[in-house]
Amino acid sequence: MGKQSEASRARHVAIIMDGNGRWAKKRALPRAIGHQRGVEAVRELVRNVGGMGLDCLTLYAFSSENWKRPDEEVDDLMNLMRKFIKSDLPEFVANDVRLKIIGDWQGLAPDIVAMLEDALEQTSGGSNTLAVALNYGSQNEIARAAAKAAAIGDVTPEAIAAHLDTADLPPLDLLIRTSGEVRLSNFLLWQSAYAEMLFVDTLWPDFKPAHLQEALDNFAQRERRFGGR
Ligand code: IPE
Ligand code: IPE
Ligand code: MG
Question: What is the pTM of this model?
Fold first, then answer.
C-alpha cells in the first residue's frame, strides 16, 4: 500500500505513547531506561514520518495527571524533555518541522518554558506540524476554551472548538494508543468525536515507523460516516 487516495488519506494522527514502564519491567531495567527508549522511538518516528503524507502528528508526552507519579520519575521525564529539545531542535528546523505545544505547558519549569518558547520560534516556518501534548488534560483544555467562548457570549461547539489548543490543526483522523490499554486517559476528548481509533499491543519503545505506516494502511480501509449513510 503506502499511497492512498485523497479521501482515505489521514492528515492528522495522534498517538498516546504508552508502555515505557512495562517495556523496562519486562527486561528488569529501571523505568527511566524505558522512558529513554521511548524518546528514541519518538526520534525515529519523527525522522521517518515525512513520506507518510500527514500534515500533523500529535504526540501525548506528559499528561496533567502524570504529576501524580513519584518525584524521581517526574524528574527523569522532565530531564529527558530538556535533553530532547536541545539535541533534536536543529533536526526539526532542518526537516521543515513546525513544533506546536498543546496543554498547560506554561506550567512547566521556567527553564523548560524558555526552551520551548525558543523552539517554537525557531520552527515557526516549518510546514509539517509536530504537536506535542505537555502537561495536557483534555477536560482542562475544554474548560479553558468554554470560558473563552463564554467571555465572547458565544457558547457554541464552533466557538469552543475555535478556542481549543488544537484550533489551528486539521481535524483528527486517527487516534492510536500503544501498550494494549483501551482508554483515552484525558486525551483529545473533544477532537475524537469522529476520529477513528486504533489500539495496538506494541509497547511504545517498540513502536517503529513501519507500525505507523501499517496503522495508516488500516485507516485507509475504513469507511467513515460522520453520522450519515
Ligand atoms: C508512557 O509510558 C510514558 C508516560 C506516561 C510519560 P508509561 O510510563 O505510562 O508506561 P506504563 O504504562 O507504566 O507501562
Ligand atoms: C497516558 O498514559 C499519558 C501519556 C502517554 C503521556 P498513562 O500511562 O499516564 O495513562 P493511564 O494512567 O494508564 O490511564
Ligand atoms: Mg502508562
Answer: 0.97
